[in-house]
Amino acid sequence: GSKRALGDRRWDRPPPRALPVSSQAKPVLADRYQRHGLAGPVVIKRVRSPASSARRHRLVEEVQLAYRLHHPTIAQAHYFKIHRGKPYIIMEYVDGPSLETVLDLMAIRGKPVSLAFALHVAAELADALHHAHSLKDEQGRSLGLIHRDVSPATCAWLARAR
Asked: How many separate helices (H) and strands (E) can be counted in the chain?
């Protein structure tokens, strides 16, 4: 495939695939190559450019906080870069449809969501949100994070168990 440079990292873009799309970004699937690091699939999201200086600062702060989140059910943020004046976030690729797609397919098939499935999803989301909300700074003080965009469209469902 064609090689593209984003900062000091190289990305090899395969043919387009359907990916969960959040309201904030347009994702592109890529393979990550690093001289001294792990290779593998990632998602490059071009984030809307904030209109004001205060919002740009907030975006950088949010990405820095997201980078600190390490949890099995939270996609890992790997890198943030301003490239040609546009902000990009490189994140872990989650191989699966959005929860919205799963729920839509169940509705189209006329199958209600089982209680076990609903409880499993609720427990996984609650655990991830608790992890984010409990994050502390270097001095042990709570950062008080609150996720402002939890919805079926922003939750990807793994195609295989971790």
From this structure: 3, 6
In angstroms, rounded to a whole number, what is the distance separating the alpha carbons of residues 12 and 30?
Answer: 6
Whole-number Å distance between alpha carbons of 78 and 3: 19
Question: 127-146, pLDDT tens digit by residue?
Answer: 999 999 999 989 999 988 88
Compute the distance between CA of residue 132 and CA of residue 46 in angstroms, rounded to an integer.
Answer: 23
- Report helix, strand or coil for 132: helix
- Long-range CB contacts for residues 75-84, cutoff 8 Å, separation at least 24: 75/43, 75/156, 78/32, 78/42, 79/7, 79/9, 81/6, 81/7, 83/6, 83/7
**Residue 31 phi/psi, 5° resolution?**
-100, 130
- Spell out a b/e string for 58-95, using b for 16 or more CB atoms within 10 Å of the CB, else e: ebeebbeebeebeeebbbebbbbeeeeeebbbbbbbbe
Give this prediction's pTM.
Answer: 0.70
Task: Quote the CA–CA distance of 56 and 110 in Å, as a whole number.
Answer: 44
- Count of alpha carbons within 13 angstroms of residue 60, beta-carbon side: 9
